[in-house]
Each structure stands twice: as structure tokens, then as C-alpha cells.
């Protein structure tokens, strides 16, 4: 009997996942100088930024205005105001778009600007926005917007199925940008302190880092449509500010590649260069073997390593079960892991020594590091880093520190879930 089209697509996607996993090159394991092994970087010193640029291509520059936005009640009003004030171009690429109040508000805001003559480009991931009816896209197009679908499910490209555009970013006129963990869905409404309100952290950027976010959008738009975007919204500045100017920051945008990705190299540099503390918020915390080694090694150096993640109240139970299989190793080494209690914790932040920080879409898992298109704002600013630290510690007050007994299976079926989920960690 001939296999159905759906079966062929599933098989091609599965083979693509296996191929991506089997053809990965050697992961980074240690940092060396040509003169021998030694710790050469300190996150608080200028040499760290030089290595960051050389090894990840991230250009951290000053002259930005960065505003940290916590949860939907701070984030969405700022987004709607920025869209309303758009004069030339609005670019939207957000992984998750679901029917509801937030999606309707975005539709009205973008339609109004498109009808006023503003160029509106919307890039939707085929899976993340799969619940949106076709009429939503048609209404945007009717208003004058351009809408593209990123990596739709096609048999000839099924091997790309596991590589999703997990980015969440909105850029206005090449100068104002937003990124973080937010989605265009109603669970992001509110203060993040109720079961139906997701806790998240986002940023508003004005300045050259927003231009870099525009470039990240343009690269994904080219992948989806074949059109390479150029013009003043890509390079509206006559010069690039110095890193010594206020609120230095840069965009790290990553796509799947052979060998280590920019994300892997950044987190390796940041973790090995921390001297005092590392605070990580990760909605889906399933660190690879190499990442676990990095975090445990940091504890051995005397670094205070703490992780905030959802517990059993996660929207992805398989991730929680996979985490239960590996958290004990981290706990025994001294890494402290906390489960956020009020509701779903969806933030993706990283702070090292209260001087470097990231806010974006990267989770600490293999999917974010090697399979998805992701984006984050890397920030070199003590005021912003300390703000993120303070909110991280405040979140710990609403969290439960996990203990080894919290990871134990409660039944034979629970044990099967834990063991089975661990086998899938390369794709989580």
C-alpha cells in the first residue's frame, strides 16, 4: 500500500531531524589560549567584549535606549504606541500568534498603519501561527500589508520542519525594536502572577541595536520569500556609536548551522567568564551535556549559579519530565534550580556578574542552541543588568527551590515519561 502524503512528510521530517543530529560537529568543551589552558576572560573586562565580537559576530555598541518590560501589562501598551507612531516601515516576526484579543489588537493597529501608507511586513512561522485562520492573513493583505509564511510544510522541504523561526521581534522604522519572550496571544496579558497569565520579560530598544534587529528580520524574510530587503531602514545611521557610549547592546541572531552556533559560543564565553554569579531564567530548561558541564564548572570556581524555570505547571510537560532526568546532576554539583509557582514562567534571560545580560528567545536547551532561528539582545550595562537581577530575585520569592525528592517518579507511568522524555532531549 502506498504511503499517504502525510506519512511521507512525517518520514522526511523525522529523517531531517536525525540527519541534523547525526551530522553535528564537535561541541565546544573548553577555552584555551595558544600558550596553554587557562581562564583568560573576565566578564567585567573589555577583553570579553572583544572576544564576543570576534567569536560570535555580535557587535555590541553604545548609544541605545533600553527599557525592560515585564509581562504583558507593560509590554503591549508600548508596542501599540510604537506601531501607532510608525512613519515608514513596520516589520513583525513573532513565532506564536493565536486568535484572541491581542491578535485582534495587532490586526487593527497594523491595518490602520498600512492604510495610512506605512509599509507593513509580517512574517509568521508555519507552526507557531498554525492556529490562526487564513482570514486573519487575508485581512492584513487587504489592508495593504505583506504577509509571508516561514517554512510551510512542504514535502520537498520537510527536512527543515524541525527548524522553526522561534524569534519574537517587532521593528518600527528601523529605529524602535521589541524582543523577548512575548507572543501575540492572550496568555501574555496581565501581570504574570496568575495561572492564566504568563510571566515574561521583554525589552524596548531605541538606537543602533534596533537596526540590528531589523537586519535579523530581513535575513528571515529573505529565507521565506527570496526577497533581500535594502534601504534606509537597514542602515539609517551615518556612523556606528562606540561601545563606550551609554547602554551598549547588540543583537545575537542565530540560525541552524554545521558546528557550534553563535549562541553556543556566547553562552560558553559568558559562563566561563563569570566570577561571582549567574542568574538564568529559561522557560524550557533542558541543558545539553556540555551546558551542564559549564554550569557545574562555574560552581566549582565559586560562582553562584541559580536557574528559574517552570515546574510541573509548564505548558510543555515533556520538557519538565526531561528536566527531572538531569536536574539531579546539577543539584549535586551546587546549581540551585527554582520552579516558578504563580503560573507559567516563560522568560528567557541571562545575567552574569551584574554587568552582562541577555533578553530574548533563547531557552537553555538544544532546540534553541542548534535547531531554531532565535534572537536576543545582549546588553553591557550595569543598570539594566542589576534591574534584571533584582526582578530575578523577586521571582525567586514566588518560587519553590527544587530538591532531589521533587524529581522522583510518582508511579511506573511517571518513570516511563521521565525516561522517554530524556531520550528526546536533542529535539526539545
UniProtKB/TrEMBL annotation:
It comes from the Bacteria. GO terms for biological process: cardiolipin biosynthetic process. Transmembrane segments: none annotated. The lineage of its organism: Bacteria, Pseudomonadati, Pseudomonadota, Gammaproteobacteria, Chromatiales. SUPFAM superfamilies: Phospholipase D/nuclease (SSF56024). InterPro entries: PLD-like_dom, PLipase_D/transphosphatidylase. GO terms for molecular function: phosphatidyltransferase activity. This is Phospholipase D/transphosphatidylase. Residues 341-368 form the PLD phosphodiesterase domain.
